[in-house]
Automatic annotation (TrEMBL):
InterPro entries referenced in this protein's UniProt entry, alphabetically: PHP_domain, Pol/His_phosphatase_N, Pol/histidinol_Pase-like
GO molecular function: 5'-3' DNA exonuclease activity; 5'-3' RNA exonuclease activity
Name the UniProt record assigns to this protein: Polymerase/histidinol phosphatase N-terminal domain-containing protein
The organism's place on the tree of life at top rank: Bacteria
Residue ranges annotated for the Polymerase/histidinol phosphatase N-terminal domain, each copy included: 144-208
Species the sequence originates in: Ensifer adhaerens (Sinorhizobium morelense)
Gene3D superfamilies noted in UniProt: Metal-dependent hydrolases (3.20.20.140)
Lineage: Bacteria, Pseudomonadati, Pseudomonadota, Alphaproteobacteria, Hyphomicrobiales
Alphabetized CDD domains for the sequence: PHP_HisPPase
Amino acid sequence: MTTITVHVTRADQAANPYFYVPFDVPEGTTRIDVTMAYAKAEDCIIDLGVLDRRATDYPSRAGFRGWSGGARDRFFVATDDATPGYIHGEMPAGRWQGMLGLYKLPPEGVDVTLTVSHDNAPRRLEPQPARTFPVRKAAGWYRGDLHCHTFHSDAAGSPELLHAAAKQAGLDFLAVADHNTISQRCYFHPNSSSDLVFVRAMEVTTAVGHANVFGIDDWIDFRMTRPEHGHTLADMVHERGGLLSINHDKPTIPWDYDVPEIDCMEVWQSHWMAWNWVSLGRYQQRLASGKRISAIGGSDFHQPARLMPEGPLGLARPTTVLWLEELSEDAILAAMKAGRGYITERPSGPHLALSIDGQPMGSTVRGPVEAKAEVNGAKGDRLLWFDASGQIADEIIEDDHWVGQYSGRPSLFLRAEIAAEKSRPQLIGDFTAALGGGLPWQLTEVELQQQTVRRAISNPIYVV
């Protein structure tokens, strides 16, 4: 057993938010156990992870063995198993590094002690989980949640519980984007099926920005410390054939890196009142600047330790709805990148399908245009039309099965939103009832009473 104590300060944090504690793993080791101890407090929170000897400085392509953020103070890694958030497998001898994330430190700094023990008992070398390729051979609108978490990062609930919650919500696909790790795939790879397709995902999580990576088996190095590392992240993702989405670019965790080449943007995260008008406004600005970015949504649901009933703060609030020729991970990723869908408040929320001369969302057409928006389930609410100049038209939705029309020459793109009018009192009432008292996310009664509540948001059609 080895015990190592270090003193970390705000000067260390300013120099690099990741502090490394080296330790040696002897030849023949089949398991290590690591425990961290420090004086945890409101102003003192330290994250925990580990790299093996193959890791390099940022950006590293190998050597990641796990990350638990502030959710755990101990872990094990072995050839056959590992703590959730950590990666089992070969145990290369040599210099490993405990990784401390210096999230919050008091003015005087803090002592941190790592205790490392090694075991060389015989163990099997278990392979990494293999991706599966389920397919449902039917074209149609498919519903999913592209952002949620299990106890492989900072949620209390298991993958099995999240799986049950997704089935309860009636979803067709689910992206489980645990923070800075891919260990959740031990469950989700073998359990992906044509009933519920699991999309490979990981949430790159730092103190100044979060982003989801989709469609990649590899771990992506999250240790971003400079504004330009936003571009490094995009390069790593695209080199591996994945998609990159900036998450919840709004209070309280906006994106403070350079904005790189992104495929998608999480325009709507959690309940609409969680400041989503800010991220939608930033999405509108990026489209108006000439960028082509697909809009997606995700609940950011952290599965509790029990299966919860459906509600406005649950899984698939909001839901991303995609038109697919078949239900498969490859088809989902292609539709996300192409913008072939819309975001709605819940799995049974309003339907909003925008088209121009038969061309679907995400297409490019020539102006002037004759556009239509097929709307279901929003009678008495309003349909808003937008181009690069902002809102350009507004219609009352007259029936539960209704088609809105727009004719003209929109600037750069055309997209649509459903804004709650008749439904607003019920939606706000359901939201406040679910809270059980008080307002979250630093909301005030002013926002609650004055902000326009969106029920659905389409992807744009681009106009040249």
